[in-house]
Design a protein that fits this description.
Length: 327
């Protein structure tokens, strides 16, 4: 096993709400404390350079500068490191002056270093690049039609076929925000892979960890049996299926309904919220308007044909199986 300290550089200088940083504080499988304090056996030692946890708060150029880790990495003086990007990457070339988003200043010019410039400086030297949240993965809310920033995800910026110098593709952990444990578990997997203890991370066509995103919301939803029996909610207080309230869960790849949100509890439709497709590359434009019966989610004809039969048979089985055997 590679025993070198692995630095994790977390850059939240893209366009974002910091939701992924907040999400990571809620992770339990594993928790951020477990990862940082080396509580999990067999992992390489890590140093996390994350604005939420950074103790360095000195000015640029001082020995106590948080940004100095990023400058060192860009100079090639930090090896190995994993680059985590939070926030979408705006197009800085689409206007005459100014900038859309920056992360610290360039000591030579005193001018902000933009998010896209940081990615261009750091990605070629990184062991791997992880795009966390749907903004960093696919552009998210800033890439909606009409947004002037020209924002895109990291794969659009670097190229979907991009590979790190160590051969890792970009890894996307989408969600708006991303699920805390999906994020922590992906980091955990990459720590095992980078230290030579796990094979190449399996990714789907949208660069998401396959084991986390291959099933649909519907397949893990607490309300799926209501769908089968054709019981559809017409208000948000009901416990039945939410498809007619606008739930896209049947065609959205996300494990939140199965996994729960924090510590196994919650998960959008399980607790009464429709799925709006936030883990998907086309989010949000392709899933709008929210809260209307989605065409792709409308129960197929067969469901309405068979629903009364399913209800009758289930009722019969419930009555029969619920009786104690006569001896
Ligand atoms: Fe499927 Fe959504 Fe209905 Fe759950 S609420 S059963 S995910 S359509
Ligand atoms: Fe996003 Fe839908 Fe998953 Fe909720 S269930 S996190 S809205 S993709």
């Amino acid at each position: 096993m590679d025993e070198r300290v692995l630095h994790i550089l977390w850059m939240n200088g893209g366009l974002s709400c910091d939701g992924e940083s907040v999400a990571l504080t809620a992770a339990t499988q594993p928790s951020i404390e477990d990862l940082v304090l080396g509580a999990l056996p067999g992992l390489p030692p890590i140093e996390l350079h994350w604005p939420y946890l950074g103790f360095e708060n000195g000015p640029d150029g001082s020995p106590d500068s948080f940004l100095e880790w990023f400058h060192r990495a860009a100079r090639g003086d930090l090896e190995p490191f994993l680059l985590i990007v939070e926030g979408s990457v705006p197009d800085e070339g689409n206007k005459a002056e100014g900038y859309w988003s920056g992360f610290g200043n360039d000591p030579r010019t005193g001018q902000p270093i933009t998010a896209s410039e940081w990615i261009d400086r750091l990605a070629p030297r990184a062991t791997g690049v992880v795009a966390v949240g749907t903004c960093a993965a696919y552009g998210g809310v800033h890439a909606m039609a009409g947004n002037p920033t020209g924002a895109a995800g990291v794969p659009d910026h670097l190229g979907w076929e991009w590979k790190s110098k160590d051969g890792l593709p970009i890894v996307c952990v989408p969600g708006c925000p991303t699920h805390p444990d999906n994020l922590a578990e992906t980091i955990l997997y990459l720590l095992h892979q980078i230290s030579g203890q796990a094979p190449m991370i399996p990714l789907d066509e949208s660069l998401r960890p396959r084991w986390l995103f291959e099933a649909t919301v519907h397949s893990g939803c607490d309300r799926a049996s209501y769908y089968d029996s054709g019981e559809f909610a017409t208000d948000f207080g009901a416990s039945s299926c939410l498809v007619k309230m606008g739930c896209w869960g049947q065609v959205v790849r996300c494990n939140v309904a199965k996994r729960g949100w924090v510590n196994g509890v919650g998960g959008c439709p399980n607790v009464g919220g429709i799925c709006i497709g936030c883990t998907m590359p086309g989010f949000p434009d392709k899933f709008m308007p929210f809260m209307e019966d989605p065409v792709a989610g409308t129960p197929p004809v067969t469901t309405s044909d068979f629903a009364p039969v399913v209800r009758t048979l289930r009722g019969f089985t419930l009555r029969v199986a619920g009786r104690a055997p006569v001896t």
